[in-house]
Amino acid sequence: MPTDTTGKKKPQRQCIGCGERHDKKDLIRIVQSPEGKLSADATGRSQGRGAYICPKPECLQKAVKKRGLNRAFKREIRPEELTAVTEDFSRICDQLAGTGGGNDGT
């Protein structure tokens, strides 16, 4: 596991789209709330089961095509849920592009 400059380990997660490993803070978390609602989580701290995707539209497209979201949440994702997640994901990607930073919730 990679470490930062202080020697602490940096958590790594695998993108469900491209399959590459990245620092957790550099990925966007898709979360399923305890009530079953899917959304993209800008902070990475929302309660619920999560899956991680690189902040690139092509990774989300790959995750949808390979049914990665269905596998991650162990259920069939409805088209209207996918639309909502895609909108959230695009909004977060735009915010990250504007700030040029990682996804650390600050």
What can you see in these coordinates?
The protein has 106 residues and is α+β, with helices and mostly antiparallel strands. It has a single domain (12-99), classed as Hypothetical Cytosolic Protein, Chain: A (2-Layer Sandwich). The protein has helices at residues 57-65, 68-73, 79-99; strands at 12-14, 21-23, 28-32, 38-41, 49-53. The strands form two sheets. It has a three-stranded antiparallel β-sheet with strand order 4-3-5. Strands 1-2 form a two-stranded antiparallel sheet. A hairpin with a 6-residue loop joins strand 1 and strand 2 (21-23). The longest helix is centred in the last third of the chain and has 21 residues, at 79-99.
Summary of the model, kept short:
This protein is of the alpha+beta class and 106 residues long. The protein has helices spanning 57-65, 68-73, 79-99, and strands spanning 12-14, 21-23, 28-32, 38-41, 49-53.
Shape: globular
Please give the CATH class: Alpha Beta
The number of distinct helices, counting runs of at least 4 residues, comes to: 3
Question: How is the main sheet built?
Answer: 3 strands, antiparallel
SS-based structural class?
Answer: alpha+beta
Give the strand line-up of the largest sheet.
4-3-5
Chain-wise SSE layout:
Blueprint: E1 12-14, E2 21-23, E3 28-32, E4 38-41, E5 49-53, H1 57-65, H2 68-73, H3 79-99
Features:
106 residues, alpha+beta, Hypothetical Cytosolic Protein, Chain: A, three-stranded antiparallel sheet, two-stranded antiparallel sheet, 3 helices, 19% strand
